[in-house]
Amino acid sequence: MAFLPGKVAPDYLDGVEKLGLNAAKTPQVRDIDARLHALTGAGAHGVPAIIPPSQFFDLLAQRKFPVATFLRRREHMDYIEEPDLFHEVFGHCPLLTNAAYVDFIAGFGQKALAMDKADRWFIFRLFWFTVEFGMIRTDDGLRAYGAGIVSSPAEAAHALSGDALMQDFDLLTVFRTPYRIDIVQPTYFVIDGFDQLAGLLDNDFAAVIAQARAMGDLPALFEGKKSV
Ligand SMILES: [Fe+2]
Predict the structure, then answer these.
(1) Ligand 1 centroid – CA 206 distance (Å)
(2) Measured in angstroms, how far is the CA atom of residue 42 from the centroid of ligand 1?
(3) How far, in Å, from the CA of 146 to the mean position of ligand 1?
(4) pLDDT of residue 24
(5) Ligand 1 center from residue 57 Cα (angstroms)
(6) Is 50's pLDDT higher than 90?
(7) Comparison of pLDDT for 58 and 225, the residue scoring more
(8) Fold type of domain 10-215
(9) Ligand 1 centre from 217 Cα, in Å?
(10) What percent of the chain has pLDDT over 90?
(11) In sequence order, which ranges of the chain are alpha helices (DSSP H)?
(12) Quick one: pLDDT at residue 94?
């Protein structure tokens, strides 16, 4: 928390406060769930670990964020590839206090459920470059809102260092951008506000994905094999 001011979206920090997260107490999923429900109608749903995509999307469509309930070891504090309670609660839940963000999450889940399974690669990329690694423009400069940044000191330092490529958010470009899950990200996409995320749902995803497939992936900005 001491590291985050000036690096993360003010809405995120507000959310930490609204949820009553603090260093003295391990949060209980049922408490977070109740607070979210009262604030935005969202919720947190405890699951043991990673769940199948259909179940994941189904929960999101119901405005319930799946929260893995195992906890990483101290030596993995900086980053683990598989999401744990810290990443889920500290990374994801604060922004679920923002109504426009919740609308995006729910609409994303609904669209993903309706989509052909062969198109899921593309929708994973959208999730990755927004919910996990999104950046936002504020009056005070660029800030992080993605859970993978706010829950990782190394990623947050990198994202704000000026070394990473910042691109204005564009749905077609995001659908064409491969990523790796095991490195700090070489590029991030910047939104102007959470209303922009909710507004993305007005797009015909199938049409944009067809265009992305026809144009092919953009060249990777990393060495090695893409994860998605
Ligand atoms: Fe996550």
Answers:
(1) 24
(2) 16
(3) 8
(4) 92
(5) 13
(6) no
(7) 58
(8) Phenylalanine Hydroxylase (1.10.800)
(9) 23
(10) 90
(11) 10-19, 29-40, 53-61, 85-86, 99-114, 120-127, 147-150, 153-159, 171-175, 194-200, 205-215
(12) 98
pLDDT score of 78: 81
Q: Ligand 1: distance of its center to the CA of 202 in Å? A: 24
Q: What are 176-197's pLDDT values in tens digits?
A: 999 999 999 999 999 999 999 9
Beta-bridged to residue 64, according to DSSP, are 43
Closest CA to 129 of 176, 63, 72, 64: 176
Give residue limits of the domains in the chain.
10-215
What amino acid is encoded at 23 in this protein?
A
Q: Helix (H, G, I), strand (E, B), or coil: what is residue 188?
A: strand
**Ligand 1 center from residue 171 Cα (angstroms):** 20
The pair of three-digit structure tokens given for residue 159, joined into one six-digit string: 């994202």
Question: pLDDT-derived band of residue 80, with 50, 70 and 90 as boundaries?
Answer: confident
Residue 49 has a pLDDT of 85
Q: How far is the CA of 90 from the centre of ligand 1 (A)?
A: 10
Q: What is the pLDDT of residue 79?
A: 81
Give the phi and the psi of residue 216 in degrees, each rounded to 5.
Answer: 85, 170
| Distance, CA of 9 to CA of 150 (rounded, Å) | 9
Residue 140 Cα to ligand 1 midpoint, Å, equals 26
From the CA of 92, how far away is ligand 1's center (Å)? 7
Nearby residues of 171 by Cβ (< 8 Å), 6 or more positions away: 126, 200, 203, 208
